[in-house]
User: Fold this.
Amino acid sequence: MISRSPLRLALRNVGLRFASLALALFPLVACGGDEDPCDSMVETICAAACSCGGAAGCAIGDASGAITFDNKAGCQALYGLACSQPAPSGFSYSACEKALATPMCVASTDGQALMLPAVCDQ
Assistant:
């Protein structure tokens, strides 16, 4: 008779539970689902900020100065904080994204930077 150690049985049960969970969640992950409009807007803002900042990194500001980031992840970490709050009354994520279709880059005292469109700056 082959005996199985309790540890081996426990690991096997954990593995089966994990596999069951992974299979249950697969349709949600594989199909994507709806992206949060705020997260999408932050992605668009930071992509534009990095495009304007060029090799120096990502920057958002105006002629008098800019907030700079080493990379897109740094930009998303800061601007993504806004997504944990309700949107201001009358604010439109999609209008902001549309306004960023052609980003306006300005020369700031900190280098090239994205100047947020007024519709995004609420």
Q: What stands out?
A: The radius of gyration is 22 Å.
